Amino acid sequence: MTFFLGAQNTEIDSLKTITKSSSDAYEIAKANLILSKLHERINLNQGKAFALKAYQYKSNDSLLAETNNQLGRFQFFTAQLDSAVYYFETTKKLLQKLKDDKRVAVVNISLGAIQLRQGDYNKTITTLTESASFFEKANDSLNAAKCYSNIATAFAELELFPKAIEYSEKALQVFENLNQVQFRLITLPNLATQYYKNGDTLKAIDYNAKAEQLATTLGDKRSLSIIYNNLGDLYLNKDSEKAKQYLEKTLQLKNELNLKSGIEVAQSNLGYIYLKNRDFKTAITYFTKAEQNIKGKQLVTVYNNLREAHKGLGQMNKALEYAEKLNRLNDSILNSESQKNFMEVQTKYETEKKEKAILQLQTDNLEANYKRKQNRNLLIAALSALVLTLLLIYFLQKNAKRKRIIMEQNLTIQEQDFNQLLKSQELEGIDAIIDAQELERSKMAADLHDNLGSKVATLKLYLESYDDKEDFSGFYDKLKKLMNDTYNEIRNISKNKNFGAQIDKGLIPSTKVIAKQISDSKKIDINVVNIDVNKRIENTLEIQTFRIIQELLTNIIKHAKATEATIQFSEQDNILTIMVEDNGKGFNLKTSKAGIGLTNIEQRIEKIEGELVIDTSLGNGTTVILNIPL
What pTM was estimated for this model as a whole? Predict the structure, then answer.
């Protein structure tokens, strides 16, 4: 017990930390959703609050569907059935959009449970039997068992207790085989109630005891409130003191969890115990609370008990008042039932009367129609022959015309297809020439910008970082080396040698070289980290990727005003991931216009079918993630 709760509390604390420290909205929403699920059986109000926080994130349909489903569960637990239906139906729409048929079927289990709560037991059995059949065919025994459990409850409400027990035992067997503790906890008290109403008190007590032990181990207060209520009812006339203890625990837990369902039954039963013990004042207190929520024939019992309690205190006026309420309510119920019976008889009588009148009218109409038909048949026969002849001529002409039109259309279509083929071939040839010219121009412009741009930017950085107090000879050597590299780049570009892409040792070593060159300026420190990339990449892909990194470093030097930057390489599932981070001033993605550097990066990423993600905001630096398929 202690280990489970401790582990759960550790998980809750960890998730709360994510919601406070993470800057990723999706991760925060996911953490809030998990927190909501963890609080479902601990504190409904807190669980619902976490779900509503997750609900604010609407950029992921799958997560939003799961959040709507969780909100539907909370509305169901607090008896807000219309709201629960809204959230479950919204969940279904999102899942249908995602074409997730299995999760749609799972949501239908929840909707079936609402039908059960609304008292439409036959519809519940029909809906969930179909769902159970679906899950049985899919070999999904867990969801099939969830259907069995609710079917059992519907049979119990119809007082078909042997069938209810059959389905509950069937569900319990699956939950035990799959070690589904929470579902066992739901099924055990249901079975206890079904056995009790079927006359087997010993089995009812046994199943409730198992449920109580399991709920206590899990710290499931909501289930404990149901179990204690059942046990209080079981012991009501056998051991009033034990019944009282269970019922008081029930009220305490239901008030703590803000659960309204079933609380009036516990209050009424407690009032009955105090009435039997002649503690009339306390009995009146509980009966008065129960009176506010209880209805129908159960309210008759409460009025009768209130009358007896006030009589016990010698408060005859109050006793008389409740006696009158009792009589009025009894009369109302009897009148309702009598009126219902009268209406049924009246409806039956009126229906039979109408049916007789309709039958007589039909007979009269048949006689008149027979005479009219005799006079009309000859005329119809002659007209029919004429009409059939005209129709035959019409359809023959129409058919011939239709065939001619179809033939003409086919010829036109064939001619259009031939012309379109010629035009397409001509356009493809022209496009290929234009694309080749544009590609060469774009490549030259991009490589000039990337290669020479990064080196000239580094050269500028060197000049700006020079301090008069430094040894000029060391500074001069660095400056001279960079000037030589720049000159060689220009020569290589002019000779069309991969436009200066000198990465013979590989992408990561080349990145480390350029990072060291820039770091030597002492204005920015660039760190290169290789996590798990151990193989060489195809040469063309290496060149394009290196150009993108050069462009990103140029942007950091020119615009970011950063003092530190990190380039991190990793690989998973044949995807190369490069993350470039700096601690610079950042920028506003929505308002900033893309310069030539960013445009070049986007074009290169598109060319190698990669993915570009930029995360930045004013004052918070910039993170660029490149996902490149190998």
Answer: 0.39
